[in-house]
Amino acid sequence: MSEIDDIFNAAYKPRVFKRREVLLPDYVPEFLPHRDDETKRVALTLSPALRMERPSNIFIYGLTGTGKTAVTKFVLRKLEENAKQKGIKVGYIYANVRHRETPYRILADIADYFNMRIPFTGLSTGEVFNRIVKKLTNLEGVYIIVLDEIDFLVKKYGDDLLYNLTRINEQLSKSRVSIIGITNSVKMIESLDPRVKSSLSEEEIVFSPYDAKQLQDILNQRAEEAFNERALDEEVIPLCAALAAREHGDARRALDLLRVAGEIAERENRNVVTKDDVMKARVEIERDRVGDVVKTLPLHGKLIMTSILLATAMGKDYATTGDIYDNYKKLISKLGLEEITLRRVSGILSELDMLGIISGRIISRGRYGKTRVISLAAEVNAIIQALKEDPMIADLLNEVKYDDNRKNNSL
Ligand SMILES: Nc1ncnc2c1ncn2[C@@H]1O[C@H](COP(=O)(O)OP(=O)(O)OP(=O)(O)O)[C@@H](O)[C@H]1O
């Protein structure tokens, strides 16, 4: 039988998985362990909708994988069910701002919910907004708009859309609109216009990270639905939980580790997932994460990443921003390109820092004063592999002798 047939047969009859999809990030379970208080607070805040009153806007923040999206969607589904039973018109629109990218697309999603036809391009954002307002003036009901990962919107486009949405009720008579803003960046909140900040934060809910024990409970509950009986070695769940607890208590990371470990066992035609599979999963996930970030960098981002590799090659712990900029200028002149400003370079460095690929800190150099230094925060080989997919960068990288195993354990 061909290898392809083997793959399809394995997909048809999985060995370890009963329902793999239960481990995917967008699956919302019927019960969310250790999020009782947060679930109740969101439910309580939204409950006036059942009396046709406008619920307070909610601002939810917490680190990644702390259940913000899961809790919000869970409560909204219940709210919608309850409203339906009572014959009250309550609806919600969920937009992941990172995926929808522009204010226009976010508004188009909202318009879509109200069955309005909005062309893919061609109208101004203001025009789409006005059409939504017009539509809503003729409707009854309470509508809750969830804007997830709003930091991506605010960073790129400012807070105009948030401002307009939080003011929308002033133009409506029969319908009411509430906003739920979700973010994992506390820094972003500081950058908001104070008026937007105060209207969004009528209710503020902070989601704290999970500890290893809590992550184990979450994994146990999901594993029961996702895996066949006795498909997991005893140490598998505690290990996934312990690794993810070190990564700021991220349930998404814990579930990813468990799912990828299962996929590795499945690929190797085994009936049991082991601790080794979890360790391999950790390397695979890290490689994918770094790969996704690095491959999508603009050319100058890749050149800066290459400059960092050059500056930290041969086991150096860190490089100064000056060294990095010097290397970058050499690469640019070699390629005959025009350099970007130091300010743009700093911007790219901050972005890479935020994405966890590098880590910057200020050190004191005695009488030379203070300087910003950069070290790698992700696995070197994963970075090199991703960069090499760009032929222009691959040529440059052939000159880097990177001999560093320490970063391979950076998780
Ligand atoms: N208490 C919980 N019980 C069960 N599953 C959970 C719990 N908290 C989070 N999860 C699961 O972990 C994953 C990540 O959760 P979620 O997407 O809600 O995190 P988030 O805080 O919104 O993260 P991000 O800021 O990265 O979007 C999802 O699969 C979710 O179902």
Task: Provide the fold topology.
Elements (H helix, E strand, L loop, with lengths): L2 H10 L23 H11 L11 E5 L5 H19 L3 E7 H4 L2 H11 L11 H13 L3 E8 L2 H7 L2 H8 L7 E9 L2 H6 L2 H7 L2 E5 L4 H15 L9 H11 L4 H17 L7 H21 L3 H14 L6 E2 H15 L6 H13 L3 E7 L5 E7 L3 H9 L2 H7 L14
Parallel strand pairs: 1-4, 1-5, 2-3, 3-4
Antiparallel strand pairs: 6-8, 7-8
Helix pairs in contact: 2-3, 5-6, 11-12, 11-13, 12-13, 13-14, 14-18, 15-16, 15-18
Bound molecules: adenosine-5'-triphosphate (ATP).
Adenosine-5'-triphosphate binds next to helix 3 and helix 13.
Strand neighbour order, sheet with most strands: 2-3-4-1-5
Q: Please state the structural category.
A: alpha/beta
Order of helices and strands: HHEHEHHHEHHEHHEHHHHHEHHEEHH
- Alpha carbon gap, first and last residue: 40 Å
> How many structural domains does the protein architecture include?
3
Q: Classify the helix fraction into a percent range.
A: 40-55%
Give a list of the ligands: adenosine-5'-triphosphate
Unreliable residue stretches? 405-411
Description:
The protein is an alpha/beta fold and 411 residues long. The protein has 3 domains: 36-207, P-loop containing nucleotide triphosphate hydrolases (Rossmann fold, 3-Layer(aba) Sandwich); 210-288, Helicase, Ruva Protein, domain 3 (Orthogonal Bundle), CATH 1.10.8; 297-409, Winged helix-like DNA-binding domain superfamily/Winged helix DNA-binding domain (Arc Repressor Mutant, subunit A, Orthogonal Bundle). It is 53% helix and 12% strand. The strands form 2 sheets. The protein has a 5-stranded parallel sheet with strand order 2-3-4-1-5, sandwiched between helices. Strands 6-8-7 form a 3-stranded antiparallel sheet. Strand 7 (358-364) and strand 8 (370-376) form a beta hairpin. It is globular. It binds adenosine-5'-triphosphate.
